[in-house]
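Worked Example 4.2. Consider the chain below.
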Amino acid sequence: MPPNITMGLLVIVLFCRSAREHKDRAFRWIWLTIVLSFGFYIPVVLWADAVPMIGMLMIPKTRAYVWTVLIGYFAMKQECK
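Applying the procedure from the previous section yields the following structure tokens:
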């Protein structure tokens, strides 16, 4: 398995376990944002040369990243109160 996929799966599992163990409401969806990001990115990497329109999947991938950042931002903002 390529290292980036292995690392991605490891990060997903670690975030999911950690959020469950600590009952962390803010970070309970981080694993999903990572899955979505990978899910939209992998087809682009594999088939963008053959089907250029598949590059449009970078838009929802970016939205998944923005969701991740917003989760972290709001968690930090809540913690600073």
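The radius of gyration is 15 Å. The helical segments are 3-21, 30-47, 58-79. Compare this with Example 4.1 before moving on.
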